[in-house]
């Protein structure tokens, strides 16, 4: 389905993280889905969606995959309301990180890549962008709308397997546009980007101070056309 329902209940407590309902059939990958789709061919997961319907719509984000300081593969452009980013599932629609090749990967990167598994589901909703952890290991998230306003300390959220978190809040982002730019020491500051690391955390509470020290991570570049 093009627009799967959110895998969490709107009636659930107003917690920062919500449990993911893994029984939702819309989150399952099936071989039938892959073979019946005219726009998906085995092994072709490294480029953006090129379906006629998708091309008529503007994209809402681009996804970049990084290993330490090296970007691997091209930007993956997202047109649908949700996108799966996974490693070792050769069926279904989405961004398959396992298909991205890089010579001379370190053993640390290889071990971390093996932990991505089912990966994450990114979903654009009216209130913002949600990330659902479908892997068997935690993910770590940072974005401008998760940081505490006027706080100089980087906030990195740990999201356990089976839970979701709103990684970007549109309303809060509009308010932050009027605040002073923060001075980040690990690179340029983008008020419309989200960083997600697989299995390894970074920041003040971890030995890795910068996300560029993480073996496998994503940069979600959100479009201003919301």
Automatic annotation (TrEMBL):
Gene3D superfamilies: 2.60.200.10
SMART domains: DWB
InterPro entries (UniProt xref): Dwarfin (IPR013790), SMAD-like_dom_sf (IPR017855), SMAD_dom_Dwarfin-type (IPR001132), SMAD_FHA_dom_sf (IPR008984)
Chain intervals for the UniProt region annotation (Disordered): 1-54
Gene Ontology cellular-component annotations: heteromeric SMAD protein complex
Compositional bias ranges of the Polar residues kind: 23-40
Keyword annotations of the record: Transcription, Transcription regulation
Xref: CDD domains: MH2_SMAD_6 (cd10499)
MH2 domain sequence ranges: 60-226
GO molecular function annotation: I-SMAD binding; transcription regulator inhibitor activity
Protein name per its UniProtKB record: SMAD6 protein
GO biological process per UniProt: anatomical structure morphogenesis; BMP signaling pathway; cell differentiation; regulation of transcription by RNA polymerase II; SMAD protein signal transduction
């Amino acid at each position: 389905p093009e627009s799967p329902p959110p895998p969490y209940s709107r009636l659930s407590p107003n917690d920062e993280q919500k449990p993911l309902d893994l029984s939702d059939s819309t989150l399952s990958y099936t071989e039938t889905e892959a073979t019946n789709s005219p726009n998906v061919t085995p092994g072709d997961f490294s480029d953006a969606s090129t379906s006629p319907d998708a091309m008529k719509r503007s994209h809402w984000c681009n996804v970049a995959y990084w290993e330490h300081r090296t970007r691997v593969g091209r930007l993956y452009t997202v047109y649908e309301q949700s996108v799966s980013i996974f490693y070792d599932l050769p069926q279904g629609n989405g961004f398959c990180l396992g298909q991205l090749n890089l010579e001379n990967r370190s053993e640390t990167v290889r071990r971390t890549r093996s932990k991505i598994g089912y990966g994450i589901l990114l979903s654009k909703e009216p209130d913002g962008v949600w990330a659902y952890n479908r892997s068997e290991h935690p993910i770590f998230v940072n974005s401008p709308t998760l940081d505490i306003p006027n706080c100089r300390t980087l906030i990195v959220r740990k999201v356990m397997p089976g839970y979701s978190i709103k990684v970007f809040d549109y309303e809060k982002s509009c308010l932050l546009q009027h605040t002073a730019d923060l001075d980040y020491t690990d690179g340029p500051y983008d008020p419309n980007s989200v960083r997600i690391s697989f299995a390894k955390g970074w920041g003040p509470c971890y030995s890795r101070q910068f996300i560029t020290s993480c073996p496998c991570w994503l940069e979600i570049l959100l479009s201003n056309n919301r």
